Amino acid sequence: MTATGVGFSAFLGERPAVGRRLAVTVLAGGPGGEREVSLESGRAVAEALRALGHQVFLNDIAPDQLAALARQVDCIFVALHGTFGEDGQLQQILEERGLAYTGSGPEACRLAMDKAAAKARFIEAGLPTPRFAVAAAGTIDEAVACWTLPVVVKPVREGSSLCCRIMRETAALRPAVEEVVRRYGDCLIEEYIPGLELTVGILGDAALDPLEIRTRREFYDYRAKYLDDDTIYDFEIDLPSDLLGRLRDMSLTAHRVLGCRGFSRVDWRVNPETLRPYILEVNVIPGLTSHSLLPKAAARMGLSMAGLCQFLINDGLQRRCGGRC
């Protein structure tokens, strides 16, 4: 199901779930490299929920800092990007405590965070993805030996384009891979796909309209995502309408084959000459900041930030009560 004609009015209502004021703990921050972005997402979510009249508690959290989970609330809103919040660790704790929470479960989070494992699932599902290899401490020579540059080098389990680089010089490839392996344990080496950078948001069972990202930087890196004010986001994409429709359909397939639920964001590269799309990854807790892509796509369909957050809470509550609330 795609966003076009999906009947978004079914969840456009910005009213507290089950007609009452809810107590919600918003979790943000965390121990990972995306901490600052996560704090910004958490503040935006808390502001939106308070505007709806909910009682909101905004808390930082870490594996050794779980006091916020002892508070009695109706739902936990997970706005934690990257390590601990997006890799399934936190979701496993929430499941064990029987708490209602937003977004995907532990296994889907673990799978989506592991780019190599996720790409294997994409291949099984017939989704096109760039050729890749994984380098670890003992396999760097083998991993770097068979590539024609340019290639992309990045951590296997990290987000926000942290330590992600496009390598165009042979002499620089091995040192770059060694650095990622040293810092993160392993490294994804991926075929570089020239062309357009697109993303497709998923909300419930709907794929939202594709969004093109244009930046003055070499690619949509951390600074372009969160710091630059001149990054361009455009829904009017110079690609055939049938291709854009296929991107929505394939994005929903990717969301489902990883077992995601509630929401996600699927990132693509499209070669404008061959019109071939390539899926890069699925983000199970996409950014919710003023720069973020999923809120932009939801707003295009008439869903405000408050409505988006309310939908995700409703989804978490319905899942916890088995659809009986």
Features:
about 20% strand, about 35% helix, Rossmann fold, 4-stranded antiparallel beta sheet, Dna Ligase, domain 1, single chain, 3 domains, 10 helices, 6-stranded antiparallel beta sheet, about 325 residues, alpha+beta, D-amino Acid Aminotransferase, Chain A, domain 1
In the predicted model, the low-confidence regions spanning at least 5 consecutive residues are 9-18
Total count of strands: 13
The portion of residues forming beta strands comes to: 15-25%
Largest sheet: 6 strands, antiparallel
Helix content: 25-40%
Per CATH, which architecture of the largest domain? 2-Layer Sandwich
Number of domains: 3
SSE series: EHEEHHHEHEEHEEEEHEHEEHH
> Ends: how far apart?
25 Å
Please, what is the average pLDDT?
A: 90
| Number of DSSP helical runs | 10
What's the CATH class label of the largest domain? Alpha Beta
Question: Can you offer a commentary on this structure?
Answer:
This protein is α+β, with helices and mostly antiparallel strands and 325 residues long. The chain folds into 3 domains: 8-102 and 303-320, 3-Layer(aba) Sandwich (Rossmann fold); 112-128 and 194-300, ATP-grasp fold, B domain (D-amino Acid Aminotransferase, Chain A, domain 1, 2-Layer Sandwich), CATH 3.30.470; 132-191, Dna Ligase, domain 1, CATH 3.30.1490. It is 34% helix and 21% strand. The protein is built from 10 helices and 13 strands. The chain has helices at residues 35-51, 89-96, 106-113, 115-124, 140-144, 170-184, 222-226, 241-257, 293-300, 305-320; strands spanning 23-28, 55-60, 75-78, 132-136, 151-155, 165-167, 186-191, 196-203, 206-207, 211-214, 232-234, 263-271, 276-283. The strands form 3 sheets. Strands 8, 9, 10, 11, 12 and 13 form a 6-stranded antiparallel sheet that branches. A 4-stranded antiparallel sheet has the order 4-7-5-6. The protein has a 3-stranded parallel sheet with strand order 2-1-3. β8 and β9 form a beta hairpin. The longest helix is centred in the first third of the chain and has 17 residues, at 35-51. The chain is globular, with a radius of gyration of 19 Å. The two termini are 25 Å apart.
